[in-house]
Amino acid sequence: MARLKISLILESGARIGPGKAALLESVRDTGSISAAARAMDMDYKRAWTLIDSLNRAFDRPVVERATGGSRGGGATLTPFGAEILAKYRRIEEAAAKLGAGDLKALERHALPDPGPKV
User: Fold this and answer.
1) Where are any strands of DSSP class E within 1-118?
2) Tell me, what's the pLDDT at 58?
3) Which one-letter DSSP state was computed for residue 62?
């Protein structure tokens, strides 16, 4: 079945797409950037770079880190981060609903094996 992948590109050039949204959900669910990265089979440095890019894109943090301590620190999605994630998912859902009929029509004409994905 055909599907949409939505990427939001802010005027600054900052981007939010399916990967960053999934990473935010993983941080929310695990309470840790490193655990989120592991859950997604992603390198910690890559996860940190993506989180940092989101934190730099806005006037308030999306994810906050806590370092050290007896429990080793962690990370939390801020209320603003939760808001961004919710808005992204709403846009994604609305676009999928809006495009469902056209996607089905395109899929009826799609070949099962179009060759190399270019």
Assistant:
1) 8-9, 15-16, 63-66, 74-77
2) 97
3) S
Range of the domain at 41: 8-101
Give the per-residue pLDDT at 117: 78
| Domain containing residue 86: CATH number | 1.10.10.10
Q: Residue 116 has what DSSP assignment?
A: S
Count up the domains in the chain and report the number.
Answer: 1
Phi and psi dihedrals of 103, rounded to 5? -65, -40
Tokens of 101: 């009929």
Q: Which two tokens stand for residue 103?
A: 């996607």
Tokens of 97: 């609903």
Q: Name the pTM for this structure.
A: 0.87
Query: Cα-flanking dihedrals φ and ψ of residue 15, to 5°?
Result: -125, 145
